[in-house]
């Protein structure tokens, strides 16, 4: 190949020399062609040199040396294969880890090491309530747990459902849940905010009936909590004075927190699923709605509004709606006897009297239809003067001062 190119270049050089004598332009062109041919020959000549027998011999020699070195090194020893480790045995589920229908999974068991128990607040046949402190955050909270031989799967399901419901409600007048889990003993617990205050039952028992302005202030906040619950299809079903806490919350006085959603169910417009069997009456007899006593499985938020009317009657008069000693007689009165008006017992604004009386109608269709409507009508009740934060703060200050004097007297006596 190289010889052919050399012959071509020699011929072209001869022609270019002759042409340069007669045609200078043609000679110049031929000279450029010769230069290009030289460059081409130079490049391809270099690549050709790599393919020469000498280069091939050099590469073969290098390859032989590498192969010789590889043969001189000992082969690695074969590692015998080990049988796979046996899979760990599955952990048996805790004895009471059931969750209510509709839940997708069961929370994994974990202990209560994040919480330091400070004081036992309450104890019952099915569980305990503890004052606790979060170890990492230092936050004071209340820990509610159920346990004992009397606890069954339905109780666990109701308890779990209560925690799930509360954790998804955001109204500031609803008790807030911080944590939930299954203890090492297999029973569930949840941690909620700790409130320092007094429930409405204690309030009336110790301090007597409330003035109209304060009762309106309290009932309005209860209805705000129910409004959110009803709008997502939940019915409380156990509205009573003992489940309404009055406390100081942040800088607000007479702040209401609605407690105990353990009997909550979904109304018929959202979901027919319930944690309780149909025709089973739940709630407190003094505040239960007639449709619940009739065993209707279609109980909606208007049953809670009936209870709000009964609670309002108690706050203003200091008396139950129906004064019967036996629960059966009280239930019969809710079904058959007309509810007394508040104004039959104490003087109150007419608008408030009419509103509470409407809440206590036997048929749900005759009551206010929503908690929102009840809030709006409570806002229109004329209370002169309205209950203010200044009045609330003064009341709490005086109450705490009297409590302090009583405690000091009991210590010195």
Helix content: 40-55%
Strand order of the largest sheet: 1-2-3-5-4
| Rg for CA atoms | 44 Å
Strand content: 5-15%
CATH topology of the largest domain: Transferase(Phosphotransferase), domain 1
Low-confidence stretches: 46-58, 65-72, 75-79, 91-109, 269-282, 406-413
- Total strands: 10
Q: What class would the helix/strand composition place it in?
A: alpha+beta
Query: What is the rounded distance between the termini?
Result: 127 Å
CATH superfamily of the largest domain: Transferase(Phosphotransferase) domain 1
Count of distinct structural domains = 3
- Helix count, per DSSP? 12
Largest sheet descriptor: 5 strands, antiparallel
Averaged pLDDT: 77
Shape: elongated
Q: What would CATH call the architecture of the largest domain?
A: Orthogonal Bundle
Q: What attributes does this structure have?
A:
413 residues, alpha+beta, Phosphorylase Kinase, domain 1, Transferase(Phosphotransferase), domain 1, five-stranded antiparallel sheet, three-stranded antiparallel sheet, 45% helix, disordered C terminus
Structure explained in plain terms:
With 413 residues, this protein is α+β, with helices and mostly antiparallel strands. 45% of the residues lie in helices and 14% in strands. The chain folds into 3 domains: 1-41; 115-193, 2-Layer Sandwich (Phosphorylase Kinase, domain 1); 197-389, Transferase(Phosphotransferase) domain 1 (Transferase(Phosphotransferase), domain 1), CATH 1.10.510.10. It has helices at 2-22, 24-50, 53-72, 153-167, 200-207, 212-231, 290-293, 302-317, 327-336, 350-359, 371-379, 389-412; strands spanning 115-124, 127-134, 140-146, 177-182, 188-193, 197-199, 234-235, 244-249, 252-258, 265-266. A 5-stranded antiparallel sheet has the order 1-2-3-5-4, with helices on one face. Helix 6 (212-231) runs antiparallel to helix 11. The chain is elongated. The termini are far apart. Residues 46-58, 65-72, 75-79, 91-109, 269-282 and 406-413 have low confidence and may be disordered.
């Amino acid at each position: 190949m190289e010889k052919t190119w050399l012959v071509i270049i020699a011929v072209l050089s001869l022609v270019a020399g002759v042409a340069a004598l007669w045609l200078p332009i043609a000679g110049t062109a031929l000279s450029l062609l010769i230069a290009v041919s030289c460059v081409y020959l130079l490049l391809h000549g270099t690549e050709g040199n790599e393919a020469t027998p000498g280069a091939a011999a050099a590469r073969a020699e290098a390859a032989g040396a590498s192969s010789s070195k590889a043969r001189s090194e000992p082969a690695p020893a074969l590692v015998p294969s080990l049988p796979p480790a046996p899979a760990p045995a599955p952990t048996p589920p805790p004895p009471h880890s059931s969750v209510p229908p509709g839940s997708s999974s069961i929370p994994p068991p974990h202990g209560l090491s994040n919480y330091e128990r400070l004081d036992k607040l309450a104890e019952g046949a099915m569980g305990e309530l503890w004052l606790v402190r979060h170890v990492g955050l230092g936050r004071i909270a209340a820990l509610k747990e159920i346990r004992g031989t009397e606890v069954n799967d339905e109780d666990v399901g109701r308890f779990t459902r209560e925690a799930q419901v509360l954790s998804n409600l955001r109204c500031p007048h609803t008790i807030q849940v911080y944590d939930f889990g299954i203890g090492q003993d297999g029973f569930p617990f949840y941690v909620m905010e700790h409130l320092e205050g007094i429930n409405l039952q204690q309030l009336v028992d110790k301090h007597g009936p409330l003035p109209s302005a304060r009762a309106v202030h309290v009932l309005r906040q209860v209805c705000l909590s129910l409004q959110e619950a009803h709008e997502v299809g939940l019915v409380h079903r156990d509205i009573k004075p003992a489940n309404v806490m009055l406390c100081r919350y942040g800088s607000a006085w007479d702040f209401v927190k609605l407690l105990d959603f353990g009997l909550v169910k979904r109304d018929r417009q959202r979901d027919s699923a319930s944690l309780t069997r149909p025709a089973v009456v739940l709630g407190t007899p003094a505040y239960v709605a007639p449709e619940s006593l009739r065993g209707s499985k279609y109980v909606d938020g208007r049953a809670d509004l009936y209870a709000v009317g009964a609670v309002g009657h108690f706050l203003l008069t200091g008396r139950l709606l129906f004064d019967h000693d036996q629960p059966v007689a009280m239930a019969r009165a809710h079904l058959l006897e007309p509810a007394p008006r508040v104004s039959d017992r104490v003087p109150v604004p007419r608008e408030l009297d009419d509103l509470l009386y409407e809440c206590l109608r036997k048929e749900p269709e005759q009551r206010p239809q929503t908690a929102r409507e009840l809030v709006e009508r409570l806002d229109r009740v004329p209370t002169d003067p309205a209950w203010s934060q200044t009045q609330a703060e003064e009341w709490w200050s005086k109450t705490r001062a009297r409590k302090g004097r009583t405690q000091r007297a009991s210590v010195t006596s």
